[in-house]
Amino acid sequence: MNEKHDQAIESSLVAPDTQMESFRQARNNRRSELVEDYVELIADLIADGGEARQVDIAQRLGVAQPTVAKMLKRLSAEGYIQQRPYRGVFLTGTGKELARVSRERHQIVESFLCSIGVSVETARMNAEGIEHHVSPETLEAMKRFTPKRHL
Amino acid sequence: MNEKHDQAIESSLVAPDTQMESFRQARNNRRSELVEDYVELIADLIADGGEARQVDIAQRLGVAQPTVAKMLKRLSAEGYIQQRPYRGVFLTGTGKELARVSRERHQIVESFLCSIGVSVETARMNAEGIEHHVSPETLEAMKRFTPKRHL
DNA sequence: ACAATAACATAGCAAAGGCTATATTTCCAA
DNA sequence: TTGGAAATATAGCCTTTGCTATGTTATTGT
């Protein structure tokens, strides 16, 4: 260990453990991002056209179809969706619930950004990344600060 | 292709290309997150104790030391830092500039969250993930909405 | 001065999330 | 009803980011 015990000089650094927790949580959130994105998108596609197909998911996410196929297997294994070979994909109860929560959070974040003066295009772009890092407490704060007309 | 041209029913779905752009950008941001986190942390450690050592970086990020060593090689290759074997790591001009920008953005996001009523702990946690998805436009909006006393 | 310890380097592995290429199945239209 | 196109499945590869285990170099206390 290095021997600087002069803690008066400590500038903006928080305690190591505290900072570690923040980084760990950010990494954790990153791991669940994809699941949330997929489930939310699948719910939207089903609500919109009655079905969620791999090609449509792939197009909207901007990835290749085999990438989607692989991820759907994971979602299936984790109990969010059900899929039959060469058929569409359906959300389970768990999947529907996750989709609902994700969708709602997404909406709140996007509306909130608009309400503080961000353009709709930028709000949409930024919300896609931000939503996954917004805790319930922060979400509540955003809800409070969003005028009704934006919701 | 499926043949539903009844666009009146389209619920909340934006155009496929538009959505694709959002997802692509979110993925892009994710790739630069780690670089920004490292450079920002290195700058803080240097400002705080005069040096940035692998063990300290590893402890604060909550990862193992070889993980840090590998990333430092990448940062070195990309011109953000300079390192001499068994010696500390130093920021290049590019690195310092990136650190400055990242640090400022981080601060603004964290202060902004506090200013809308989020607790400091949650603000710190959420800011760590959110900062990387905040575009210049959104950052400006956040700055406008943060009272002076929070900055 | 030199052994013990702490820090760093390196090798090798794994999982996640991308990709292309290609095989298989389904579906629609002639 | 059947042949071609579209959708899905599968194989195999790559990169990133993490890990453990272990070797190598510096530093430090006696």
Automatic annotation (TrEMBL), chains A, B:
Domain called HTH dtxR-type: residue spans: 31-92
Region (Disordered): 1-25
Known role: In the presence of manganese, represses expression of mntH and mntS. Up-regulates expression of mntP.
Subunit structure and binding partners: Homodimer.
GO cellular component term, pick one: cytoplasm
UniProt protein name: Transcriptional regulator MntR
GO molecular function: DNA binding; DNA-binding transcription factor activity; protein dimerization activity; transition metal ion binding
PROSITE patterns per UniProt: HTH_DTXR (PS50944)
Key word ATP-binding present: no
PANTHER family listed in its UniProt record: IRON (METAL) DEPENDENT REPRESSOR, DTXR FAMILY, TRANSCRIPTIONAL REGULATOR MNTR
InterPro entries, alphabetized: DtxR_MntR_Metal-Reg, Fe_dep_repressor, Fe_dep_repressor_sf, HTH_DTXR, Iron_dep_repressor, WH-like_DNA-bd_sf, WH_DNA-bd_sf
Highest taxon in the source lineage: Bacteria
Gene3D superfamilies referenced in this protein's UniProt entry, alphabetically: Iron dependent repressor, metal binding and dimerisation domain, Winged helix-like DNA-binding domain superfamily/Winged helix DNA-binding domain
Coiled coil regions, renumbered to chain: none
Keyword Repressor attributed: yes
Family label: Belongs to the DtxR/MntR family.
Entry keywords, A to Z: Activator, Cytoplasm, DNA-binding, Manganese, Repressor, Transcription, Transcription regulation
Subcellular location: Cytoplasm
NCBIfam families named in the record: PRK11050.1 (NF008273)
